[in-house]
Amino acid sequence: MRRFHLRLLILAAGLPGTAVCQTVVLSTDFSSLPAAVSPGTALLEGVQGYAGLGPSGDPFAGTFLRSATGNPVTIQLTGRPPHNAIALDFLFAAIDSLDGTGTFPQGDFFAIRIDGNTFFRESFANATPGQTQSQVPPPGVAPGG
Fold first, then answer.
1. pLDDT per residue over 13-30, tens digit each?
2. What are the beta bridge partners of residue 65?
């Protein structure tokens, strides 16, 4: 089962309006840690009670990369073909005690940065009912998850 998948969308050289190609540059089910991933203190763990949760056809199974609050996980890709877009596809679970936009020390945020630019940064809260999170869950998804 796929847990993390990164594709580069590559525009074919030549005439305007040419087709877009997709090249997978990293795909992992986290049964082992790919060399491109610097996990910080994150560890590979069994999905435990999360097995079967997630989208139809791609639920949690086997292992996932579990990262503590405040730990950056970095993916360094080299030798990429020329491209003008990146598609990032992954399954994320907000677990343990996430404190949302709170003050200790700066809240619990999940961020995606590419080449120094932030494309996603939202807080998640699931520890107590009174906490505030900035992430608005899509229909059918529980807050904090």
1. 445 555 567 778 888 889
2. 44
